[in-house]
Specification:
8 helices, Immunoglobulin-like, five-stranded antiparallel beta sheet, flat, 594 residues, 4 domains
Length: 594
């Protein structure tokens, strides 16, 4: 008998003894946090250990305010001898993320094991403020990329447009691949212009003892209502992070002085919320014709001609120039009367169309005089509120005199019949100017019917050329699609093989990376306009939720991805992973996604 066969028999015999001994073993339940004291920026594991059985318990874990506890625990089974006594147990590991500091207790709760009810004892977790080292790491991360939004004053008025700039600072040693999107406003108390690509970029900017690159966007904010309001912005960066597993503070950007090469993830940079006092506009001394203009303006009033005839159109231009909320300024009111017919105004803004905070706003009216004489065009007054002087001002327009001529009257032409009668009936025509001409008869045709175009040689030549091009492009496109599908199939097969090999060799990093890549490939079919292969775990989960998959499937995918990330950053242990169960779960998930 070989040594290998003997070892197999001994293993089977030992398991039989364990099964017999544990049949009478008392079931005992323990609960503990590991570690039981953490900082608010760290994670922990709520562990439930059941001695004396290998059956999974059934029960409902209570929720604790201030703690975010995973709904899908990692299940581990073990069987061994302790001092010659067989022992079996089941472990349930729940990932826990604190949301604030303090002491938290998971109360006692019931589980069903082998048809009987057992009580899980309470467990307490202490969440402390971050240590000095963690605070320094977080401070370094905040100083690696941040936003600045200066304001010219500490308060503003309701409806006032505030012109400022939003600047993104990026440390030169932070491995940023690109800025994912334009900054996004947080809060509904202010309206904001559309922020597209940055308008100013600077290099080698010194701040906080570091060298930064800066990107600046012009921002025009308009307060919607009075009161103390908050505003913030955030922007996402694609950064290259280190793949080392010993990240001390869940901040892989600072593990290596030169960062190195690793995977790409999204880093959100958020401006700390700024509180601004918004004052209502004063009601005292408010002009009756005030229509909402806030700023500092000058007005001009002119016509293109001061002398016309009845019915001739005249262009009346009213322009406002300065700084303020041009987007909220309506056109002045001019109504038709007995002297003028007035059309609707045309709008023309000269300045930055996105912010509309500085420039010239032109209102052009078309006036048509209805009668002759020395007419007067009604003056236009313009009232606005000056936020610096905190008072209302009115620009008084002057009357414009317009001299309108009656114009020429229509004269009826003489009767053509009478003029024809006056012509003598007999006119002697001279023959001196007459001469004979000859014409070339050209080619003789047997009939006047045109030759059909289909019989023309050039017609078919011009038809065949585009047809040949269309067929060629169609063939190339078909060939390219087949090549893409074949590459997709080969890549999927390689990842599936890598998944199985990693499970056989108990390689958790390779297993979960292969699972994540296979998940990316499966969901890439849902929206081909987005590059799902560049998604991080959080982006992947958000995208899957947008596709409205089954809720249980989304939970399973999220748990697998979280478990993989935890193993990669050494937040959980891979010593007792059940790779057979994990392989089955992964296969079921990928089958449901396909």
């Amino acid at each position: 008998m070989s040594i290998k066969t003997t070892l197999h028999l001994l293993l089977i015999f030992s398991l039989g003894i364990i099964a017999q001994k544990t049949a009478a073993q008392t079931i005992r339940v323990e609960a503990i946090f590991t570690p039981s004291s953490i900082s608010s920026s760290s994670r922990t594991v709520y562990k439930v250990v059941i001695h004396g059985t290998q059956q999974n318990p059934q029960g409902s874990l209570p929720q604790v305010p201030g703690l975010r506890i995973s709904n899908n625990p990692q299940s581990l089974r073990s069987a061994n001898f302790i001092n010659g006594v067989p022992s079996v147990r089941v472990e349930l590991n729940f990932q826990v993320q604190p949301q604030r500091t303090g002491n938290f207790t998971v109360p006692s709760w019931k589980v069903m094991i082998e048809g009987k009810t057992y009580q899980v004892p309470p467990a307490t977790l202490q969440v402390l403020d971050p240590s000095q080292q963690e605070k320094q790491a977080q401070l370094d991360l905040r100083q690696a990329a941040f936003l600045k939004l200066p304001f010219p004053r500490s308060y503003f008025f309701e409806g006032e447009t505030i012109m400022t700039s939003l600047t993104l600072f990026i440390w030169d040693r932070l491995p940023v691949n690109r800025i994912e999107n334009a900054p996004t406003k947080i809060g509904e108390s202010f309206s904001c212009n559309n922020l597209g690509k940055w308008t100013e970029e600077k290099r080698n900017v010194s701040r906080n003892g570091k060298i930064y690159s800066t990107f600046t966007w012009p921002v025009a904010l308009t307060a919607a209502m009075a009161g103390t309001k908050e505003i913030s912005f955030n922007v996402n960066l694609r950064v290259r992070v280190n793949s080392r597993k010993n990240s001390p503070f869940s901040s892989p950007f600072f593990n290596d002085p030169f960062f190195g090469f690793g995977r790409e993830e999204s880093l959100t940079v958020e401006l700390p919320r700024k509180s601004i006092e918004i004052k209502p506009l004063p009601s005292t001394n408010r002009p009756s014709d005030y229509s909402g203009a806030i700023g500092n303006f000058r007005a001009q009033y002119s016509v293109d001609s001061k002398q016309v005839e009845v019915g001739d159109p005249v262009r009346l231009n009213f322009s406002i120039e300065g700084k303020g909320n041009f987007a909220a300024i309506p056109a002045p009111t001019l109504e038709s009367n007995e002297e003028f017919k007035i059309g609707p105004p045309a709008f023309l803004f000269q300045g930055n169309e996105e912010t509309k905070s500085e420039g010239r706003q032109n209102f052009e009216f078309i006036l048509t005089p209805q009668k002759a004489g020395n007419l007067k065009i009604t003056p236009i007054n313009f009232s606005y509120f000056d936020p610096i002087q905190e008072k209302y001002s009115t620009i008084i327009g002057n009357e414009i005199n317009l001299f309108v001529k009656p114009g020429e009257k229509w004269i009826e032409p003489p009767n053509q019949i009478e003029s024809q009668n006056s012509i003598p009936s007999t006119i002697a025509m001279s023959t001196n100017d007459l001469f004979q001409t000859a014409s070339d008869p050209g080619i003789w045709h047997s009939n006047l019917q045109l030759e059909p175009i289909q019989s023309n040689y050039w017609f078919w030549t011009f038809q065949i050329l585009p047809l040949s091009g269309t067929l060629a492009f169609g063939f190339l496109g078909w060939k390219r699609r087949n090549k893409f599908n074949e590459d997709f199939r080969i890549k999927k097969a390689n990842l599936s093989r890598k998944l199985n090999e990693s499970a056989d060799h108990r390689d958790p990093t390779g297993f979960f990376r292969a699972f994540k890549d296979l998940t990316r490939m499966q969901i890439s079919k849902k929206d081909k306009s987005r590059n799902t292969f560049a998604f991080s775990s959080d982006e992947l989960i958000s995208f899957i939720k947008e596709q409205k998959f089954d809720k249980n499937l989304i939970i399973e995918i999220e748990e697998m991805l979280r478990l993989g990330d935890g193993l990669e950053f050494a937040e959980s242990s891979s010593q007792e992973l059940d790779f057979k169960s994990l392989r089955g779960r992964a296969s079921e998930i990928l089958k449901k996604l396909s």
